[in-house]
């Protein structure tokens, strides 16, 4: 059985969406991030980075327990274990990995910076770098828009690359993005968001604030 340690944040949702898409059996251990639970010794013994998501698979290769604690690595592990959503063909596989790492790096890092600065602004705190982060975030959306030209999904076929990107792009309103500037992204967002597994994964663990 796979145990998912997570909260329904943009990063946490990458893992929960893939678990829903993969059909693998799993259970959820919700993490109280607001209480600093991710920094407690018991969790740091599982994930030394003290972040979510993290999975522990009691039935890993050779029957050994396996722990995976980076969201991109989790997506690859679950794709390999389930045999789904990561192509076997080398060229197609590399295209999916190109976008997976772009999402894990640029989309995640820039989205996180914008979210942090917007929260600071809304709390009346220092947010002098918000404009810098939003400029870079618009550049990232532009890259996605070009990459999706003539494609339904980032790597052509739906894959873990889309799952890595979607939970951050899903928050475009909070990021104050003008989505009309990125029509390919808007169409992709609707396409991915219509998948039942994606809709379920967004609410694992459940949250009721609409974010």
What does this entry look like structurally?
- Helix 1 (10-22) runs parallel beside helix 3, helix 1 (10-22) runs antiparallel to helix 6 (160-169) and helix 4 (90-122) packs parallel to helix 6.
- The chain has 8 helices and 4 strands.
- The model has no long low-confidence stretch (mean pLDDT 97).
- The two termini are 29 Å apart.
- It is of the alpha+beta class and 211 residues long.
- The chain has helices at 10-22, 41-44, 71-82, 90-122, 130-147, 160-169, 183-193, 196-201; strands spanning 2-6, 26-30, 54-57, 66-68.
- The protein is globular and about 50 Å long.
- The chain has a 4-stranded mixed sheet, covered by helices on one side.
Keywords:
8 helices; 51% helix; alpha+beta; 8% strand; four-stranded mixed β-sheet; 211 residues; globular
SSE pattern, N- to C-terminal:
EHEHEEHHHHHH
Computed over alpha carbons, the radius of gyration is: 17 Å
Overall, the morphology is globular
**Average of the residue pLDDT scores:** 97
**For the terminal residues, how far apart are their CA atoms?**
29 Å
Strand order of the largest sheet: 2-1-3-4
* Beta strand %: 5-15%
SS-derived structural category: alpha+beta
How many E strands?
Answer: 4
List the uncertain runs.
none
Largest sheet at a glance?
Answer: 4 strands, mixed
- Total of DSSP H or I helical runs spanning 4+ residues: 8
């Amino acid at each position: 059985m796979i145990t998912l340690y997570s909260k329904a944040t943009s990063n946490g949702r990458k893992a929960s969406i893939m678990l829903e898409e993969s059909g693998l059996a799993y259970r959820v251990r919700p993490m109280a991030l607001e209480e600093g639970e991710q920094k407690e010794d018991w969790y740091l013994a599982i994930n030394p980075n003290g972040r979510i998501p993290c999975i522990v698979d009691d039935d890993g290769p050779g029957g050994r327990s396996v722990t995976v604690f980076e969201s991109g690595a989790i997506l690859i592990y679950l794709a390999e274990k389930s045999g789904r959503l990561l192509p076997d063909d080398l060229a197609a596989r590399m295209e999916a990995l190109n976008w997976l790492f772009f999402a894990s790096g640029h989309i995640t890092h820039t989205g996180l910076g914008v979210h942090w600065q917007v929260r600071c602004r809304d709390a009346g705190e220092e947010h002098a770098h918000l404009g810098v982060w939003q400029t870079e975030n618009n550049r990232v959306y532009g890259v996605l828009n070009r990459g999706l030209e003539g494609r339904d999904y980032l790597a052509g076929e739906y894959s873990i690359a889309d799952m890595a990107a979607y939970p951050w792009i899903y928050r475009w309103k909070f990021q104050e993005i003008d989505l009309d500037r990125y029509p390919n992204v808007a169409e992709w967002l609707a396409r991915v968001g219509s998948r039942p597994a994606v809709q379920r994964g967004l609410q694992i663990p459940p949250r009721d604030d609409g974010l």
